[in-house]
From TrEMBL:
Belongs to the drug/metabolite transporter (DMT) superfamily. Small multidrug resistance (SMR) (TC 2.A.7.1) family. Gdx/SugE subfamily. Its main location: membrane. It is found in: Cell membrane. The keyword Cell membrane applies. The chain crosses the membrane at residues 27-46, 58-78, 84-102. The keyword Transport applies. It comes from Massilia terrae. SUPFAM superfamilies: Multidrug resistance efflux transporter EmrE. Gene3D superfamilies: 1.10.3730.20. InterPro entries: EmrE-like, Small_drug/metabolite_transptr, Small_multidrug_res. This is Guanidinium exporter.
Amino acid sequence: MSWILLVVAGLFEVVWAYSMKLSNGFSNFAASAVTIVAMIASVVLLSMSMRSLPLGTAYTIWTGIGAVGSFVVGILFLGEQFNVVRVTAAVLIVAGLVLMKLSSH
């Protein structure tokens, strides 16, 4: 169950990062509200997952999901650059996440 909570927390991190971009410096009320709710949900779920997962593993997985997820959302919805160097960086992050998962109990 802790892993499920952690993955959902990471997905909420992607939501808040994307909605923060859409908020235009918190000038868009709806996007700002989504940002704040998603931030709270993300941190609460992260803390719940840490009840049984090691700090280093949980935090690394959480930030990795947020980083790679935001990278993908940026490409798909915001027209951000897609090139070999950026994709290689994302693949390396995912490799690190897999190694963290494999190294935890």
